[in-house]
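Weekly puzzle thread! Below is a chain. First person to post its structure in token form gets bragging rights.
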Amino acid sequence: MRTTKKMNAYTLAFIGAMAAIIYVVTLFRFPLLGSKVHFANAMCLLGGMFFGPLYGGLAAGVGSALYDALAGGYDILNVMITFVSKFAMAWVCGMIVWHKGERSEDTPRAVIAAVCGALTYVALYMLKSLLMYGWAGMVSRFPASIINAGVAIVSAPLLFKAMIPALRSTLNKG
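Winning reply:
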């Protein structure tokens, strides 16, 4: 999918579908040391890889913010912080994978993008935790954040490489 200035219905449908996937995947989580471990960050990175920085960022931000608002029980401030931090994660990842407006399918580039995107999110989440909960709150959330980042860094590039042929086939039919 090439980045364009005008969003068409096809692009909007892909963004909505990815946001829905991110929302649903976020439902499946388990607590660890004051935080939660989940597979959603991998899906946010995948959004950046597939759809680029802007559209991938929107999918990641919207899907994650909807979870916080509808299922997470968070207030509007936390919902907005989640939107910004998940958008930033996918945006950074998408900026690296989408070099000069064209998606690269190169595995090392996908891994570097996943690392940079995941670490962007960890940094933003740690900043939020420090500001809202103090040092103890930040330290207690760090292990789960690193586990989530590790899972995302390993799985997102693998899923990206595995799904590219199917996505290319689908886009060529449309």
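Puzzle host: Confirmed. Bonus trivia for everyone else. The radius of gyration is 16 Å.
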